[in-house]
Design a protein that fits this description.
Elements lengths: L1 H7 L10 H11 L1 H16 L2 H10 L4 H26 L5 E3 L1 H16 L4 H24 L1 H9 L2 H25 L1 H17 L4 H15 L1 H6 L17 H29 L6 H15 L7 E3 L4 H5 L11 H15 L2 H10 L2 H24 L5 H13 L8 H22 L2 H11 L7
Antiparallel strand pairs: 1-2
Helix pairs in contact: 3-16, 4-5, 4-6, 4-18, 5-14, 5-16, 5-17, 6-9, 6-13, 7-8, 7-13, 7-14, 9-10, 9-13, 9-18, 9-19, 9-20, 10-11, 10-18, 11-18, 13-20, 19-20
């Protein structure tokens, strides 16, 4: 009886959580979100800033100008990332164009051989940055231009990107042989962590290289400059050859490898980003930052997944906090641009490019896979890759432009040949050649 009576006693009503308790629960849930934002910024910055510095130096930037470029890029992508994320409550991550920085290394070498290096070459590169930003703004206004860029076959654009990256990746092997004391420890750390903590492999290898440089008496003797970066403005110069060989490829490689890829990542996690607004905003910021050495900013592609995935927060409507956190940390990391630039510039140039090559190896593997996977595009993609990787300069125009041109041209002739040799066309040609044909 007692058991039956107790079973009939209604349960006490649940006491609703107080507003303070609900707030504490929400804030507790944000721990992993802030962590994801911190990881996004650290990985995005440390894994590729050596590529940015190497690219700026390749087109003639001084140490102060390179530090200024790194600072303005960090601030611009941090501020725009915060604005877009807060405004739209989406994890819209903004990054600098790592493929664009890699393009500078290859184009800079070609321009130097052609007599366009030094101060003049740097000013011409700044003009190309500004024009690439304006092209991105125009793309944001024009749906037709966006669709045109999207219609460039992915294998061809990937082959051009692979051709830009491959020579830098080769420097990792060169550095291991020619600078074994500095390069091999960094490579070993990259290999080991690549098996257990892939996300941190490149930052750790960079830290290892930095450690070796800091302990090297020769390096310490060449460290100059202050610890805080300063913005250094330089008047851009607009040269038609540089605009064709650098501005156009920079625009195309940034659109195809960064913006379109970043949009795909966002959509893969269920978001529909404000594409036109982001393109116009990042394009305008790129143009404004060009006189200070800013290369290009765009949708983040690889690091976007860190802030947009369920690991950042189980509620998709709260993940924007991760992207905003990453933006704030990018601004803070930019304050270390002068020290990072000074340390890298004091190092042998081959070591800088070797570390940059390690950072770009995954991108090279992905680009080659995309370029060569489809047999219909393989021949044209291979031609685009070889032409771009050759580093040629023709009529003052760099290899990236010619690689894209050769790839698209060969693809067009291949498709035309395929159409003329279809079974129906072949049968028609045989009937036309037959002695029983009534056609004279």
């Amino acid at each position: 009886m007692v058991g039956e009576r107790s079973a009939q006693i209604p349960a006490a009503p649940a006491i609703p959580a107080t507003p303070d308790a609900q707030a504490r629960r929400r804030n507790a849930d944000l721990g992993p979100t802030f962590g994801a934002g911190i990881v996004t910024a650290l990985v995005g910055f440390t894994s590729s800033f050596a590529v940015v510095i190497a690219g700026l130096r390749a087109v003639g930037a001084t140490e102060r100008q390179a530090a200024s470029g790194l600072l303005v890029l960090s601030v611009l992508m941090g501020v725009t990332g915060i604005v877009f994320s807060v405004r739209h409550r989406m994890p819209i991550s903004i990054a600098w164009s790592t493929p664009g920085a890699a393009l500078l290394v290859s184009v800079g070498a070609g321009r130097a051989h052609a007599g366009h290096g030094g101060t003049s070459g740097y000013r011409e590169a700044l003009g190309a940055f500004a024009v690439a930003g304006l092209l991105t703004v125009v793309t944001g206004f024009s749906r037709r231009l966006t669709s045109w860029i999207a219609r460039i076959p992915a294998p061809i654009s990937a082959a051009m990107l692979a051709g830009v990256i491959a020579p830098i990746c080769l420097e990792s092997a060169q550095a291991s042989v020619r600078l074994p004391r500095l390069a091999l420890p960094a490579v070993a750390v990259w290999v080991i962590l690549g098996r257990f903590a892939k996300r941190w492999a490149v930052p750790a290898s960079l830290a290892t290289a930095f450690g070796g440089l800091a302990l090297d008496p020769a390096t310490r003797g060449h460290l100059t400059g202050g610890l805080l970066p300063t913005l250094t403005a330089t008047t851009p110069r607009f040269d038609i050859g540089t605009l064709i060989s650098l501005a156009l490829p920079l625009y195309l490689v940034t659109m195809a490898s960064q913006n379109l890829a970043g949009i795909a990542v966002m959509r893969g996690y269920g978001y529909e980003p404000p594409i036109r607004e982001v393109l116009m905003g990042t394009g305008a910021a790129t143009t404004l930052g060009a006189p200070f050495g800013g290369i290009a900013i765009n949708f983040a592609a690889i690091t976007a997944a860190l802030a947009a995935s369920p690991d950042a927060h189980r509620d998709p409507n709260r993940r924007w906090i991760a992207a905003a956190t990453a933006g704030a940390l990018y601004v803070l990391l930019g304050l270390g641009a002068a020290a990072a630039t000074a340390l890298l510039i004091a190092a042998p140039p081959l070591l800088i490019e070797g570390v940059a090559g390690l950072a770009l190896l995954p991108a090279l593997g992905g680009a080659l896979t995309t370029a060569l996977n489809d047999t219909r595009y393989r021949e044209a993609a291979t031609a685009a890759f070889v032409t771009t990787a050759s580093g040629i300069t023709v009529a003052g125009i760099g290899a990236a432009f010619w690689g894209l041109t050769v790839g698209l041209g060969l693809l067009g002739t291949t498709q035309l040949r395929t159409k003329t040799t279809t079974p129906g066309n072949v049968a028609h040609q045989r009937n036309a050649a037959s002695p029983h044909s009534t056609t004279e």
